[in-house]
Design goal:
14 strands, alpha+beta, 5-stranded mixed β-sheet, single chain, D-Maltodextrin-Binding Protein, domain 2, Fructose-1,6-Bisphosphatase, Chain A, domain 1
């Protein structure tokens, strides 16, 4: 496990390097300029600067590793390891000064195309504003600032608080999403949408939310967070109950008993057919 622990150390340090860039920009008080990559999907110079800082640190330590990062969107399997990076998860929040955003860095088995279930070996999700670093090591558990964390143990969905994200990249899925949301809203204690999928998954791992669901995410949104949930005792599934969430982008994460109920409700309104 020694090699994986080294990867985790790099993930933590790389996430901190990105967070330093983000915090400096956030505290400067300057207006954040942005451009639209797609409808409701934005990028700022801060995203790119944070990604450059993260990639530079990883390249210095692991020059033979590949990189898959949101703003470069370049798949490079490289050697045996590929780093999956979201330098600023919650860019829209960041632009508006809404204080929920994070950095996500994960090390995974290198392969062509999208990662697969079980590929992620180590990961870190860092909340710059709260000074919280969520970490996970495959087979080694999950932690928050070094202290072990566990996913929630509730067995009835009626007692649950859920986290979610809106399908802003896939407007054609909005109707199905809203039907799922309505059914879940009626039987749970509440649903929260904060705007950073990586943090949502970290919160599931820490037991702050009982489960999470979202349509049409990218690998960098899920990589570190999915390992956090697994290592904290939860499960991660696609909307069909399988393990192809990196391929489809549709993800449900949480304790097994809660996922079963959520998947039953999802199946009423959506059949897994791809992104």
């Amino acid at each position: 496990m020694g090699g994986h622990e080294e990867l985790l150390g790099t993930a933590i340090d790389a996430a901190r390097a990105g967070a330093d860039v983000i915090l400096a920009a956030h505290r400067s008080g300057r207006r954040i300029a942005y451009t639209a990559k797609a409808q409701n999907d934005f990028v700022t110079a801060v995203d790119r600067e944070a990604e450059s800082a993260i990639v530079a640190l990883i390249r210095a330590r692991h020059p033979d590793h590949g990189i898959l990062a949101e703003e470069s969107d370049a798949t490079d399997p490289g050697g045996s390891i590929r780093w999956i990076i979201d330098p600023l998860d919650g860019t829209t929040n960041f632009i508006h000064g809404f204080p929920v955003f994070s950095v996500s860095v994960a090390a995974a088995v290198a392969r062509a195309g999208r990662p697969r279930d079980g590929d992620v070996l180590a990961g870190a999700v860092l909340d710059p504003l709260r000074g919280e670093t969520f970490t996970a090591l495959k087979g080694g558990g999950a932690a928050l600032n070094g202290a072990p964390i566990r996913a929630g143990a509730r067995e009835t969905i009626e007692a649950c608080l859920l986290a979610t994200g809106f399908p802003f990249r896939a407007q054609h899925l909005l109707e199905a999403y809203l039907r799922i949301f309505a059914d879940l809203h009626q039987i749970t204690q509440g649903i929260r949408r904060a705007g950073s999928a990586a943090l949502d998954l970290a919160y599931v791992a820490a037991g702050r939310a009982d489960a999470f669901f979202e349509f049409s995410l990218s690998p960098w949104d899920m990589a570190a967070g999915s390992l956090l949930v697994r290592e904290a005792g939860g499960e991660v599934r696609d909307f069909g109950g399988g393990s192809a969430y990196f391929e489809t982008g549709h993800i449900v994460a949480g304790p097994p008993a809660i996922l079963r109920r959520m998947l039953e409700i999802i199946a009423r309104h959506y059949q897994e057919t791809g992104r």
